[in-house]
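hiii so my PI (J.) wants the whole complex modelled not just the main chain, which honestly fair. so below is everything: two entries, each one labled with what it is. i double checked the lines twice but i was tired so who knows lol
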Amino acid sequence: MKLHALAAFVGLALVSGLAHADKLDDIRKAGVLRVAAFDANPPFGFVDEKTHKIIGLDVDYALELGKKLGVKVELVPTNPANRVPLLTSGKVDVVFANFTITEERAKVIDFSIPYFASGQQFLAKKGTLKSADQLKDWRIGADKGTTMETTLREKYPTAKVISYDDTPFALTALRNGNVQAITQDGAKLVPLLAALPDKEKYEIPPFAISEELEGAGIPKGEARLTATINDWLRELEKNGTAQKIYDKWFGPQSKSPLPRLFKIGDAHIRDK
Amino acid sequence: MLGLAAAGESPGDGEDGMNFQIIVDNLPYLLWGAFPEGPLGGAALTLVLSVVSSVAAGALGLLLGIALALATGNVHRLLVLVLGFFRAIPVLMLIFWTYFLLPVALGIDVPGLLSVACALSLIGGAYLAHAVYAGIAGIRRAQWDAGLALGLSRVQVLRYIILPQSLRMMLPSFINQWVSLIKDSSLAYIVGVPELSFVAAQVNSRLMIYPAEIFLFVGAIYFVICSALDVLASLVSRRLA
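here's the output for the full assembly
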């Protein structure tokens, strides 16, 4: 019964998708690009203390795209789990939210080429986590609705994966000893570690269990919009804007310096 | 500020004991969000959302409760069924459905704030309808008969004899429902409505290491709002008595 209802919804979604006019034209006509971005995920998308506006690496990409299309950008705050539903229900036009490209997600939405990449890593008490092998009998905290959660369950089915609503809760669980490690994009763990008052007690062990390539999420079947975004992303790399955005958040002068091992157009993260 | 800064405590020193300076730093955002540059949020939005939904839930509850008391046969059964539906589904589900599934299923785009207000009003209204119905049923049959014998219509009996007595008895049920509604407004986070709990999560994610301080403060605000309602209600009921 439930499955039938779901199938009917998905069917309707597909039909309405086909019946719609071209998304790119819709955006230009409306003069507004509706973008889902994280509001609680520094440095990708978070609320600025002073201006109370959402800022971050993903937001910079969204604003650049708005500039390119000549339209205003309207940011819709999202959590990890709402990214796909926001696109399929037509609430937003694009998702810029540290969105890992997966086959599973690509069944219901489309992705641009990746503009960011990092590996799934761990944060644990110093000296405790020495190899990925140990994970199979550890208690590990992850963020709900992320690929971190699913990858961990798939690769280490015997590990106890505890899903938290957001990163601060997972971090608190780690600091209180409820979990032995938490897992995240390496690019998120570095600033996280830097923010800890007792950071000398923790470390990010130097191994990753997966490569996360992150792209813009686009409604299914919008070929023109996807092509436009892909061309624009390559252009950002060529004219140096991509590097500038990266340096703003991860450059040597930033709070969490991280070498840039992936450029737009690359197929994989380069070895150091 | 608050003596904490004077004592040399700065954000980041939070290892021993709590650091409430971060609440002071983020107080405007927690209380009214990005307003006035951006939309209203925080505790102020929780208050607005609660007042609007409480009034709507109260009106709906009163209307449906009276309908339940007056209706007979199939109409009564249908009402019980509809009310049963809204009492049986979690608030979170109803918010999620109206926000994400209505646009897909019927092409109706419901903004987040509206979907939350509707869900809270409908579900709160369904609960209150039963309270109102019970309140009306609690008045003895003889009073109806007496009213009708005086030549009043059924509506007049209800308006002048039954409701004035039963509403006073229902007040505690209304307060209960409203208090629960205020707290349920925190479920708006699922669709990104920036009420108190949602902005608290945003601040929490930026600071990362002060969840205890932030959510203690949030709990205190809910306590103040709900207690204020309680005090207000006892003042009102004293005047009514």
